[in-house]
Each structure stands twice: as C-alpha cells, then as structure tokens.
Amino acid sequence: MDMSEKKLFKSYAELAQTDEYVRWRDDEFPDREGLLDIDRRDFMKLSAAGMALAGLAGCRPLSERKAVPFVRSAEDRAAGREYFYATTLVRGGCGLGVLVEQHEGRPTKIEGNPNHPSSLGATDVWAQAEILNLYDPNRSQLVRENGETSSWDAFYDAFRTLLKSAPDGDGVRLLMPPVTSPSVGAAIQTFLTARPKAVLHQWSPLSQDSAHAGTEKLFGKPVDAVYDLSNARIVVSLDADFLLTMPGSVRYARDWANRRRVRRAAPAPGAEINRLYTIESSYTITGASADHRLSAKPTDIENIARALYAKLTGASGAPTLATGASAFLDELAKDLAANNGAAVVIPGDDQSPAVHALAHAINARLSAPGRTVRFVEPGQVRPESGVASLKALIDAASAGQVKALLILGGNPVYDAPADFKLGELLLSSVGDKEKIPLRAHLSQYEDETSELCHWHLPESHALESWGDARAHDGGVSLIQPLIQPLYDTRTPLEVLAQLADRPALARDLVRSVYSTLTEPAWQQALEAGVLPLIGRLPLTLAPKGDVLSLLGPAPTSAAIEVNFRPDPTLLDGSFAPNAWLQELPRPITTIVWDNAAIVSPKTAMDIKLMPAYGDSDAVNIAQYSGRQKLKVTVGGQSVSVPVWILPGQPNGVVTLYLGGGRARGGGIAEDVGFDVYPVRLSSGLNHAGAQVEPTGEMWEVVYTQPHHLMRSEFEESANRDIVRSSRLDLYQSKSGEIFDKVEHHDFTDTGAEHHEAEKPDGEPDEVVADWYRESWKYETQDPSRKNDANKEGYSSLYPEFSRKGYNQWAMSIDLTTCIGCNACTIACQAENNIPVVGKDMVGRGREMHWIRMDHYFETPAISDPDAVESHFLPIPCMQCEKAPCEPVCPVAATIHSHEGLNQMVYNRCIGTRYCSNNCPYKVRRFNFLKWTQADALGAKGLDFYREGTPLKMLANPDVSVRGRGVMEKCTYCVQRINEVRIDAKKESREIQDGEIVTACQQVCPTGAIIFGDLNNPNSKVSRLKAESHDYGLLTDLNTRPRTTYLARIKNPNKALKPMPTLEAATEGGEH
Amino acid sequence: MAQIFRPTHNVLGRLGVLGAAATPLALMVTFSQFSRSGWATGVGVPYEQPVAFSHEHHVTELGIDCRYCHAGVEVGAKAGYPATHTCMSCHSQVWSNSPLLEPIRESYVKNVPLKWTKLNAVPDFVFFNHSIHVKRGLNCNNCHGPVHAMQMAFKGRPFQMRWCLECHRAPEKYINEPQVVFDMYKQIQRGNHLKDTDKVAKNTSLSLPIGGTRELQALASGEQYHRNKEELAKGLELVKKYHIKKEQLSDCATCHH
Fold it and tell me: Do A897 and B76 touch (CB under 8 A)?
C-alpha cells in the first residue's frame, strides 16, 4: 500500500505490509496446523479419541468437599456476600484511598475510595495489581539469617547485642524509601530519640527531590505542588506524565477529563473544554492525549521553560530555540496569557529542579496559585535529597563508621546510582572483618538487596497492615488490615518500634498518633478511609524575583541523550514480580514481558541501527524495531537493551525504562527485560549524554499490536472508520451529526415521547411504576424500515426478537477522555479471573485480556515526532445484537440473553473456535492450555492448583475459572449485573441507573466508560448514545453493537499548526 | 455332508442380531439409571459428620428456626454453616458435658474450625443464590428434601440441571409467598401437615403454600407435589406480582458466569 495514502495505522508492520503482518491479518490463529497438513489416518484417530475423551470428561465422581465455618464469626457478615473495607495503598510514598472487596474474610478485588482526594472512586493499574502481590506465592515468608531460616527474636537479639557496645546507636544507620506516613514518621522520631547517634538515610529511584529542590530555589523552602485541573482551561506539561505516573495522577486524570466531556447539552456545546499542551522528552500517554505536543531533548525542556518564562515576563537571558519550537512557544505564551488564572504549568518529576522553579514562577505569573495550583508542606517525612542522603551513607560506610545498616523497604542494591557501587560496599571487608558487620533488609521479596544482607526480614503487604499515608494533596488516610498476615511478617512501623524498645501492637502505634481523635471519630475514619480534616492548608509563598539569574547557565545538550523513565507498568522495578503487570501491554508500544530502549525513526538511522533508505521507510522500521540490541554507554558504564523504534519519540533521545532485568525477586521478575540501572549514575539520574551503538545481537521483543486485527482495517469500505476524531470548532459549528451515522442503530426510537405521553399526571418521577415498564420502547425493529439509524435499510438474516420489558445493557466509551492507561484491562483481569500466559504465548497471539487497548498512530510522516498523533481505542466485547459468533456455534455455547447480552457458556463450549473466527472485532479469547496450572507456563505462570498455594484465595468466587479448550470473552461483568438484579428484586424495585458498575468502568480514572440500560431513556448511557458524535465499529456489517464510542474531539489552538488529523479535517471541511 | 447349520441356528442367529441391537440400548439404560442413582448423585446417602447433628431434633422437636444457624440464607448467595460459637450459645448450658459434643467444645476452646462434609454442592460453573429463592417462597425442603425430619443429613435432590430448569421454566409450579418458607416448619411442628386443609385453614394464622395442606404434606415427606390447574393459576399470579420474567430465568447467564 502506498504510504502517502494511509495516515492511520497500528504498526509499521501494517504500513509496510510485512509478511508477519499479513500472517496475522489473514489468520486469527496463525500458528495452527492446517487440516490438510494432518495425515488422514491421524485425523481420524484424533477425532475418535476426541469424541471418546469428551464423553469421559463428563463422568467425574462427586468429590467430597468440606465446609469450614468460623469458630467465632463477625456479626452481620453472611457467607456468600462481599463486603467492602476502606484502606490505603501506597505508591512512591503517596497514598491512594481504596475500598477492598472481601469475600468470607479474604480480599479479592480493589476499588477506589470515592471519599479519598487522590482517588474519587477510581484507581490505577498498580492499585489493581496489588491484590496479586498479596497472594503471590513468591513473596518472602520467613526471616532468614545468611540464607538459613531464623526468627524475628533472633534478629532483635542480634541487634541488641550489637547495641550493647553502643547504646546511643552510634554506627546504626537506617535506610528507607521516603515515606509520608505520620505514624512511621513518629516511629522514626522515637527511634532516633532512643538512639540519638543513629542516622536516617532515604533513597528511592523515583522521588520528589527535583520538585523539592526547585521549589526551594524559588520559594526558599521545599513544598509540594498540588494541581487543581478542574479550574484549568489551559494545561501545560513540561515533561510531566501527570495522567499516569505522577503522584495524584488518578485524581488529575479525573479533573482533566471532567473538563473534556464534549456534550451537546451542558451550557453550550463544548464550552469550557480545556486544552493540553505537552512538551516532553519521551512519548507518554500524557503526550498522546495532548492537543498540541512538542517533543524535545531532556535538556531542551529546561531551555524551553526558560524561553517560555522569558516570553511571558519579558525577562532577558533566555536561550534561543529552533524556529519551530519558538513559534510554538509564542502561541503557547499568548494562550497562557489570555487565560490568566485558568492556566497551569506542570513540571515533571523527572526534570531538573530548574524546570520546577521556572514552571512555578510561570504559574505565579499566571495567577495560578490558589486557583489551579496550591502549595503545601511536603508530604514526605523529613524531606531531603535522596542522592545526597545515600552518598552520606556510602561515605560513612566506606570509612568504616557503620556498624549496623537496617534497610527498611526498597531495593537499593538494584536501584541505587551505579557509581555508588552499593553492592560492592555491602560485601567489602577490611582484613577478615566486614565493613558493615550487621546488615538487615526488610522487604516483601527476597531480592538483590536481601542477598547481600545478613538478615532478610519479610515485610507485610499493605492489605495485612496497620498504618497511614498522605495523599498527593497532603491529606491523611488510614491503612487497616483486610486479613491477618498470611506469614510471620512485619511492617517497617512495627520493626522501628521494636528496635526502639517500644514494642506495641501495630494498631496502637497508629492510634497513638491520632490520640486527639475520639474513639467514635477514629472508627468513623476507619470506615470512611479518610480522616475528618483531611486537607492541608495551602501555603502563601512569594517567588523570588528574576528566576533566570537564580538558575545559572542553561544546560547544553548532547547529540544523543538518554532519559530514564519509570516503566509504565513496573515503575522502578518494585512491581516486576507481578505477572499481571508484566503481561500488561505498555501503553503505545504494547510491549509485554520486556523493556526496550525507545528511539525515533530518524535517530535509528542516525545511529546506524537501520539503513537510511528513506526517512519514512516503514519496511525498514518494521524490520529493525524490537529485533536487535543497542549498547548504551553513559560515563563508561554500558548496558545492552533491545531497541524499539517509535514514531513520536523525540529525535536524539533514547528513553530507557527502569524496572526490568531483575536478578532476584521471585520467579516472575527474574530475567525479564533488561536492567538499565547500571547506566543511571548519580550525576544523571534523570537524563544524561550517552554514546550508543548497535550491537548486532538479536532479540525478539513481543508486542500485542499486530494481534486481533479487525479485518476492516485493511479492507476499503465506506463508513468503516474505526477511529474517528474531529475538532471542537467543527463540532460546535455543526448542529447535526458530525459523522455519518449510517450504521447507528436507533436506540431511542420514539420512546421518549411515548414515555411522556403515557406518564400519568402527578406521578412522582422516582417511582418506577408498572405503566413505565409497559411503555418501555425497545421493541422489534422493522429491519427494512429506513430511518436515521438505518438509512440503507439493512435487513438482518437473523431473527428479530422483542426486548420489551427487559433492561437492555449497553456501554459507551468516550474516546476524548480515554487516555490509554490500561487500567480497564487489568481491572477486568482481576475481576474476571483472567490468567496470564507468558511471553512466548503472547508472541503467538494468545493473550487473554478481555478488554484490549488498541493504539493507532496517525501521521503523514513518521519521521517528524511532532506530526505524530495517537489514538486509543479500548475494545471489549461489542455485545452485538446480531452477533456473528452465535449462529456458528455448533453447541449453542454462545447465545443471546433477554437483556441483550451475548452470553458465553463455558460448560457448554467444546472449543471449535468458530465463534472467534466469525467475530469481526476479535474480542474472543481461547484457552489453548490450562493457563492456571504451572506446567503450562513454567516459572512465568501462576499456578492456582498447587497444594496450599495462596493464589487459591485470589480468584473472584463469582466468576468461573476457565479450563483448557474453552472460549471466553467480556461478559459486561454479568456477575455484577446478576447481583444487583437479585438485590433489586428482593427489594421489589427497578435497577437504578448507575447501580451496576462494570469493573472497567469502576477503575477508569477519567470516567470514560459508562454502562447502563438503553430502555431507560434517562439513563446516562442512553443520553450518551443520543450524542451526535456517537458511533459504532463496523456497523455496516449490521452487527448492531451495544458498545459504542463517542468520537474523539480535540481542542487545538487555531493559531498553531494542527496535528495530522486536524489538518485533514480542515482540508476536507468535514470528516 | 452334514449340514453345519441346523434350523435351531436360525433362532440363535436372530437372537444374536437382536442381542447386538439390544446390548447398546441396555448399556445406555443401565448407565443412565446408574448416573441417576443415589450412588452417583449422593441423594439419600447420609455422610459422616464431625458431630452427629440431628436436624429432626433441632428443627422439629425444639423448633429452632433454620436461620438461627444458616444465617446467610436471606442475605446472600450462601446459606452458610453456623460458627462454633452458634452451637455453643446453647451447648455451653445444655448437654455441656455430653461426649457427643466434644468436637464442638474442642473447636471452641482451641479456636480450630469444625470441618463439616458438604452434602449439597453445585458445580463450580453454577452460581446459585439462596436469598432470591427464599424471597420467592421456595422452601428449604423444595431443594433439600425433608430436612426437618433428617436424623443424619443427606442430600435431598440430585441438583442436575434439568431439575433446576423444571422450576426456572415454570416457576408457577413451585413459587409461594415468602412467609410460607419458614411458617412451614411451624406448621409441621404443630402437626398440621397431618390434618386436612379445612382444619388447618381455620386453626392457624400461619400461611400455607398455594397447594394447601396437600402441598405441605408433600414437602414434609419429601415427595414431589403436582399443582392442579387452579393452583397453577395462583402460581402464575405470584409470578406476575413479583415481575418474574419467565423467559429470562432460563438465560444461561442467570446461573453461569
């Protein structure tokens, strides 16, 4: 296919029409053996054996099972019902309030806590995955001394013996990741008071150090910036991934999205819609969601910030920029100035302190403080620079001043700056005496650090612990245990109290910090998950005058720069033992079970990774991306990492994701991906100049992009645009439908009027009476009738049936607010017992996720990183009304329910896969093996059947665990529908709109997914489907999907060069 | 040369042909009967339990409500088994030294749960909710047999899918007002299931199933009661009153997800 014609594509393999792509395109199961390849006799043998064995499989003797009730049960707690308890999960020190679902005393699913300021009811991929961490069989379970099983008492004795010679704690060093917990802060204080000469060191590879240093420069004291995007009409990100990895991202995503809901109703169509500018040095989902994106080298971000500051304030001394960037900044500055008081600039945690100082100086200039940003005291207990703190520890240890090193949490041997050589130091000795005679490490896994310590101490999981944490805005919420610790584990809080000789119950340690709370107030705080006076008072700060002169010389950029970013699923590596997160496709690249060095197509040619036939040669990119390794050298250290060529990546930048290549830490984490910490030096924690060279060494990176292709993506046909997007001004200028809605099934019919007409006068609205039920309008449609929805008068081969009187479930997904964070995928995995299949199986297209996040590039020229646009398209089952999967099933294992669900009956399924073959959306997943049993996948699988494995407690008891040979797919969370329906029936009432929440809807940080009843004209989903930019996928197949999408509406600045789609939209006048 | 086959061989031959045809049939019948027998389904077979608990004694003789021990039956999916504490609420006072109750006391003192053998279980891919069935007037005995009369508990019904569908396709055959569920045991305690309908109707404020005393008797004896035309009409009225959508009851996803 000629490239110039095709602007929208999923992968360069598609652009290039490579053999691999064609293989995936032409066959959903490309690895299978063709029928003609099998010998006739073998075929007969297999058929006969299959028939016989299929019959036998049904003959299972009833196994005797035990029922084990409590000895003393909790009051008001019935078996077979779920209950929710509030607690807090901590990521990077920052708390996210959650409600944890508990079945018969075991936590099974995590949801957001609507009361909590960081959550508002949503969560992120990491919160979802925590439930697997709790039951992970690889978790550390025992105290070990030099590898031998020991006990907590033995450890405490060893520590006390050491203290005998130095009761004041001389030579005792604590090393912890930064914490925000007030009770841990108090415990540290107690410890340091009891041992006055002991010293606390703090280190974490991902920290707020830059933010603190920057605000200290500007305001004279380190503070945390809290953004209020609900007030922001203009949002500028300076390398800040505030939609995914920044503390508070879940809340920021919600606030940001709340101002992007393009609706016909509201005060005016699309009034108040915000605009996002992203200036970034890698390609993040924040950049993919931006209305305008400028890519730049990491060092250039600071120069751009300086220039922007100068443009807004008229200050002198700004660096000169390239013309493109300068023009961009001119318009950006104008837009910002025009929105004084409703604009905000967000600096990224991975950027230099100078960028933070400049961003907040700009914010001050834009009257942002108090409106779109507020500053609060740092949440971190005892804020200090991690690098300086760790350096002090290294120096002391090298000088032989450290007698006991207690590492409470974290994994510094793996993630400390490479030039500190912490591992070597821990093992070094003077003569025959070790430099640090007592080393202990508290962690959830026996990892790289544990290996180099005398003592390994198992740490409790958050769901087994008492504690507290501050939210991104400084508010405090409590951590309460959902379950007794599964093993003999402790929290840092308990260990600190014990080491300070002030042992107490963990609950009492936390309670004593809040001694001012009365008992009822405490109970209430536990129930709500948040403390009554939760927020922190905003500080009034005066920025210092001329920032540019404060900052010193502008940075100079190198030809090739590397920047280090938290992996979008593994973060700093602490989540590497989690199989769900390993197998979750990384946003945009869709890489699984691996990490790669990301470079732009142009850079790939510049560094001679691929030959320069032409700068947009897709064949080339498809051939060289994810296939071979790149040697990256920084300051004399080097690593070899497979290289990934990504359009949109800034030129001259190699992005390395942290968190891969763990040497120890459980079977899942080990030897997956590549460790890039060896080139992360203390002088270049976030970015550094580097030399790169292709090694020629081969490596196969597995990614999910080419799988599950919808055929129509390559068949030319009208009205088949899978991804639809437009511009806000076009949307506003057209009162009618902005896209052809040939396909759109008429859900509303005349029901609304019908409903109005029959409503008896004086009937209160909230009472849903029988007359209402009778007037439900979802009736058989005359297929040949032409109307707005059915302009062509498509008729269906399949029988029409009446849906009158039943709820009709449907889903609407708003592509304007979908940010592609993948939280829906993993929430679905946790809710629906979806297995992991390992790298090899994903490579064969056998991943099992029920909702996949398709990603499309849109660009006329892949060589220009700023001309690349991304579209995300979450694809669950469409629950077609005329489902093509149904008539092809020989055993009726997939059939329609009266509520419009396309049901999948596992116990009927015989695994012909015809349904999947016939599914135009490719949403069906087949259990090629028994994924839940270890021999299928080896060390990278999760074995639910091993005797005594804690994983048995993980599964959602309301969903079947599927066996081998069975097809499965999204059910619209039918178990949740059934539960709500039963409750409603018991109370003799109708199901209320919004009462049923699917797992993907509940987790969505932006609230892009809405589920509800089409037969209720006032339901949210009905109203969304009536929007003019609602559309369905491949509807000319007459499948009548129940899942439809709201087209993506962007809000670009007219003065700036539009991004590719928008350009096309302008030329064409309309889409 | 003598004939190899004599006329009698004709008979043998015919029998052989018939036998060949009949054997598979016989096998099928045998297997199907076998799969429906108590040996395969467990119906009517009492299991050994850690404590020889008698439902007859506790329910019929003492009149303890089902919900005292099976507290979840109106709330959630599972009826639930009683915690040891529930047993001890009486047995710390009554029969507190009985050697039969030693396992209960041991469990309570040592804080180790009792392990009962499950009698009634549906396969893992079936999701049954007690609360909604009780709310629709389905009595414990409807599915579990004459529980109130069991010395040692046994499985009362085979729990095969066709048996579930019998009601899910025609709920009017079994549905009742919800108060009937637990009133029934009070009726049985008073011996009302032994009297005829008129007397019961006159003498009690307790509710009766749609089929009256005859249905009560059937439930008490564990036999199937077949409602007559009028009773079925009454059943249909209840179906309408509760807005039960009959067709939906046999949607696969009602029980399988």
Answer: no
